[in-house]
Every structure is written in structure tokens, then in C-alpha cells.
Amino acid sequence: MPTQIFSLPNTKPSWMGLTATILIVSMGLASCGKKDESPNPSAGMAMPVSVLAVKPTNVPITAEAVAQTEGAKEVEIRPRVGGILIKRLYVEGEPVKAEQEMFLIDPVPYQIALQQAKAAFEAQQSRVEQATREELRLKALLTSQSISQRDYDNALSEKTTSVALLQQALANVKAAELNLSYTKVLSPLTGVSGRFQLSEGALVSANTSLLTTVSQISPIWVRFSLSDSEIAELGGHVAGKNVKEVTLILPNGDEYKKKGALNFSASQIDPALGTEQLRAVFDNDDHQLLPGQFVRARITTGTRNGVFLVPQTSVLTGDQGKFVFVAESDKDGKVVAVVHPIKEGGWLGTDWVVLGGLKVGDKVITDNLIKIRPGALVQPNPLSAGSTNSNNQSTNVK
After folding, report:
1. Which whole-number Å values give the CA distances from 305 to 57, 181, 199, 351, in the listed order?
2. In this structure, are 276 and 224 located in the same domain?
3. 217 and 255 part of one domain
4. Which of 77, 80, 81 is nearest to 90 (CA)?
5. Phi, psi angles (nearest 5°) of residue 126
6. pLDDT tens, 100-142?
7. Residues 370 and 255 grouped into a single domain
8. Strand 83-88 vs strand 351-356: parallel, antiparallel, or unpaired?
9. Whether the model pTM is above 0.90
């Protein structure tokens, strides 16, 4: 088989292009073999931070808890007599006054029963009059010895029995009058009415059928509980005599305009929950609060002196607990960030209460906390009022 010979195209080499290519590759290899010796522009530069020079202050001793409102008095409206419910006499959800008529039960059967009781009373009253006349007549005959003592004793017993039956008939009349009055179902207290549970024309049973409810909401009660640790921080068992005030925080975060007073504290800790049940009372004339509403109750028992307040965003959480960064001068005179573990005492508004770990004049760093490390150089600037930093690290809520 004949050998095939392949020939390359007849091209002339470009020595200028080849030389340029070799030069570029050589420069690239040389640059790859060297280390990046350009200086770090941030090396040795101090981080600008805002600082707050802390000073002692006095804060109230408080504790907050989730609470729920309830009517000071809440009653279920049930009929005292049975019958056909003819009419509802109130507007659902509207305020009602004590002794206001709310429902009407068919009164006709009870009117008839009252007439029968009155007729029986009048008949028995006639028997008493007859027995009295007979007793007086036989008494005169006994004096003249015209009858025996037995005949007179029988007449006297008849009179006594008739009087007793008259008292029974009178009681029946009063019971019939009472049952007739019960056909008008009245509100036992002033409050806010609830929803009508049945409908007009329904047959209701005495003392069992639920018609509606009425809640007294002025004043209104607020129920809440505190753990045994919170009670210890407040100074021990919480009672009305050692509570200065009770403040209510509404669901929108606003404080209720009126202060409350503690009107109940349990005498023992609930063994199942480890909490003490408490209750406070608040004026609610404008009906701003409604039963069943979830709010927060803040109880104040006294004042804690000589503590520090730092912004919530300046307090961080580590393995050993909460801490802050403080701007301090090191041995070389440079201002650096130093970690200070703190003992916190809860929140007060937008600040943490610091019970220990700081001293007067310490400059607590309040911003750029994510970028700071222990010992980092910082450039402290006084904290301006209302300044915030969106990069601040969030803290745990106590």
C-alpha cells in the first residue's frame, strides 16, 4: 500500500508575534510566583465606635408578666321558673343596669296559679273565722257546764288547725307571687350583656337553661402569675402592702392611663407551675378594657439604687453569659475594646439594667459590635442622643 505523505501549509513564521507571546507568558509566570506584598489598608487602623460613659442611677424594682383581663363579676343569666320565652328585652352586647328586665317568660300560667292561691287563702280565712266563733260559743257553754270539756277542746283544736292552714295558704300566695315575678328575668348587676343563647319561643327550664351572661367590667380584674425567681428579685412574697403600683401594658405597647392595685395574692406557690397567682384591679369607666383580653402587667415593689443603664443593643451574649465591650487604654496607651462580663437585672424600656461588672465612667461601646474583637483598636466617640446602628447584634430577652 503506497505511503501517504501529508504536507503542512507553506506559511512563514511571524517572529515578532512569537516574541511577544513568550514575553507575556514569562511575565504571567513571574507574577504567579511572587507573594502579594501590597499593604493591607485596614491594618493598624482604629475602628470608629460610639461609646456611652455610664453613671449610677436609680431604677424601680419591677417584674412583668403576661396577664389576662376578666370581669370583676361575671354571672350567667338563667330563669328561675320554666316556660315559653316570649321576648328578649335587651340589646346584645350593650351595657345593662342592675334590676333591668332582660327576658320575659309567658306569665299566664303563673297568673292563674296566683289566683288559685289567693282563692284558697280566702277560703281558709273563712274557716278560721268560723272556727273562732265556734270556740267562743263553746267556751261560754263550758262556763255554764252545758257541754263537756272534751267538746270545748275539740273546738279549740279546730281553731288552731284552721289558723295554721291559713298561714300555709298565705305562704302559697307569696310563692305564687314570687314565681310570677320571676317570669321577668332581671340583670343581677350593672355590666355588659352577652349574646342571647336561645331564641324567642324556646322552652326554658328553671335554673338550668342558659340565656346569656353579664360581666361587670368597671372595675376590671387582671390575672397574672410570677415565677418564684421573679418573686425573689422583687424581695419575696408579693402582697398588697409591699406593692407600690401595678401598670398595665396594652397589646399595642402603650401603657394604660390608670394605675392598678393588687387585690389578691396566693398564699403558696403552685407546685405544678412554680408560680404565684396574682390579681390586680383597674378602673375601667370608659370600657377600654374587655374581659378575656391579653395584656402585660408590670408590678413595682420599690427602687434599686446605684445601678447602670446601657442600651439593649450594646449587651451581647456569650458562653459565660452577657457581656459588653468597654473602650479602655492598654499598657501602650492605645484605646482597645475590652470584654466586661456583667450581671444584668432585666430590661427597663430600651435599656438593660446592669447590677455589676461596670464602674462609674466606663465607656461602653454601643455600635459596630459585629466588627469588634477583644483587643481591637477603637476610636471612641460620644454617643449621640437617639443614635442607632442597624448592624448591632441582637440580645436575648429576659
Report:
1. 6, 64, 62, 16
2. yes
3. yes
4. 77
5. -65, -40
6. 999 999 999 999 999 999 999 999 999 999 999 999 999 889 8
7. no
8. unpaired
9. no
